[in-house]
Model the fold of this input.
Amino acid sequence: MAVMTYREALNLALREEMRRDPRVFVMGEEVGLYDGAYKVTQGLLKEFGEKRIVDTPICESGFTGVGVGAAMLGLRPVVEMMTFNFSILALDQIVNSAAKMCYMSGGQYNVPLVVRGPGGPAAQLAAQHSQSMETYFYHVPGLKVVRPSTPGDAKGLLKSAIRDDNPVIFIESETLYAIKGEVPEDPEYLIPLGVAAVRREGTDVTVIAYMGMLYRALEVAEELDKDGISVEIVDPRTLRPMDTATILGSVRKTHRCVVIEAGAGFAGMGSEIAATIQEEAFDDLDAPVARVTGENAPMPYARNLELLKTPSKAKILAAIRRVCA
Amino acid sequence: MKTVAPGARLDSELAKRLLTQMQLIRRFEEKAAEMYAMGKIGGFLHLYIGQEAVAVGATAACRPDDYAVSSYREHGHCLAKGSDPRRIMAELFGRMDGLSKGKGGSMHLFDKGVNFLGGHGIVGAHLPLAAGAGFAIKYQGGDQVVLCYFGDGAVPEGEFHESLNLCALWKLPVVYICENNRYAMGTAIHRALAQTEIWRFAETYGIKGEAVDGMDVLAIRDCVGRAVERARRDKVPTLIEARTYRFRGHSMRDPAGAIYRTKEEVEREKQRDPIVLFSERCLKDGALTEADLKLIEKGVADQVDEAVAFAEASPEPPPEELFTDVYKD
Done:
C-alpha cells in the first residue's frame, strides 16, 4: 500500500490501464504538452506519445463526439473535461449519442467511453466554474456516474470505469486533488461500479455524503460522538447505478437518515435518496429523512456568500441533531 | 460542377447495379409512405425520394468495409450500404426482426454487419462521430474510409465546423457529403447560411472541397471516388456538396412542402429526377434496354413487397426488451 495524492492515484490508474490495453487513449484540452490543466495527466505524453495522449482544440462537443465515434469502432477513449462545467457544451454528445447508442442500435454498438475531470464547488471560481454537475447526468439511462471521494477510490473506480463497456461520467474534485491517502499498488485493484462504501460505522443515524461533503460529515460525526450520537456514514461512490441495498441496510439499522449534497437541493440526489428510502424502508424510519443541500442560488464569488452557498458543518450538525432528537 | 465525360462508355453491370439500388430506395420509400398512411409506421418519417443518386453514387465509390453514418433521412444510405430491406422495414414497423429490434425506428437505423454507423436524430451531431470513426481507423492502422452524409441544415451547426477543423487538423479519412436539398425543413438555404456555396467552407479548413450535381449518379461516384482515394491514401478529409432536391416534404407531417416552396419549383425539379436521368443515359448508351428497366422495376417491387410481408409477420418486441441494451453487460 502506497500513500499518494488523489491526483497521483488518478494518474496511476490512467498509466496502468494504458499499459494494459492499447485501445485506451486520453483526449482533451491541455492533456499532453501542458501536462493537464490540473496535472492529472502529468507525464503521460512522455510515456505514451502523441498518438495516445491527444491534445484537442477547445471544442467540447466536437472532441467528445470523436470519443463516441472512436468507441463505436472499438477504442476505449478517456475524454478529459478541463472542468465538468464545460461538459454542458458536450451534453448532446453525452446524452443523445453516448448514452443511447447501445439502445438505439439494439445492442449492436456500445460506447466504452469515460468522460472525466473535476467538478463540484471550488474556491471562489464563481457561478460558471464551481458547479455540482452530476445532476445533469445521473438522470440519464445509459450513463453510469461516479464520484470518487478518496485517493484509493479514485484509482480503483477509474480503472473500473475504463474497463466498463458503457459510457461513464467520472467527476473528480479540484478541492480533493491534493489530499493524500492509501492506494493499493496492485495493477488489478478495481472497485466495482455501483458499490457504496461505509466510511464510518455507527448506530444512531445514517449520513449519506460524498466528495467534500463526506469529509465535512466525518468531522461532524467526531463531534457528535462526544455527545453520544453514533453516526454511520455511507459514501455512495457511484451515483448511477446507486447501491440502494447498502443505503437501505444502513437505514434499517439506524432508523434515521440525513443526506448531504453540495449542489442545489431542488430535484437533487437527496430527493432521490429520500424518495427511495420512504418507498422501501418507510416503516423502519423513526424520523423523516432530512436533506442538507447547497442553496438554490448560483455560486457567488464573494467568499462570505460562497460559504453560505454550500452546506456548512454547522448546518450538517444541526440537521443530524434534529433528526436524532 | 463536375459532370461525367459524355463520351465515356457505361458498363452494363455497373449500370444495372446503380439503377437497381436507386429504384430499390425509391420503391422502398414510396412503400414506407403508404405504410405510414396506413398507420403501420409511426413517429417521424423522412423520405429520401429525389436524393437517391447521392447515396448510391457515393457508396459505389467505396469498399464494403468502409463506414457510413448519416442523419435521420438515412433509409437510402442504409439500403445502399447493403442492409437487408426486410430488416429495415421491420425496424420501421417497430418489430423484433428490425435492425435494432424495433427500438430505433426510422431515424435510428444501425447495421454493424455492413459498417453502417447509424441514423442520428440531432442535426449535426453525427459529424463528430464520423471524425471519431476516422480517428479510430487511423489509430488502428486501417485503410478504411468514413462517408458522412448530412443535409444543408447541419452546416450552420457548430459541430459541422468543429468536425471539419478536427479532421483537417488531425488528417482523418472522412468524406463529408452535404446533400444540399436547399431546405432545412422549411428554411431555404439563403435564409440560413451567409455562404450558400457550401463546398467553399472547405477552403476555410484548408481541405479539398467540391460541388457535384446530386442528380447525376455517375458524377457523384466520380467525385466521391476521388475523395475516397485521397482519404485512403493520404488520410485527408474532403467536403463534398451534392446539389440535390427532395421531392417530398421534410417529413410525412409536411406532405406537400408547399408553404415554403412553390409547386412550380417542385415540378421543375422533378424534371431532373435522378432515376429518370440515369435510365435515359443507360438507354442512350446501350448499357441497358427497355426490357432491362422493366425487369429492374419488377425486381425491386417484389423485394419491397417481400420486405413488407416480412415486417408484418415479425412479432412486436417482447416487454423485456424495454430494459435490454440500456447498458451492455
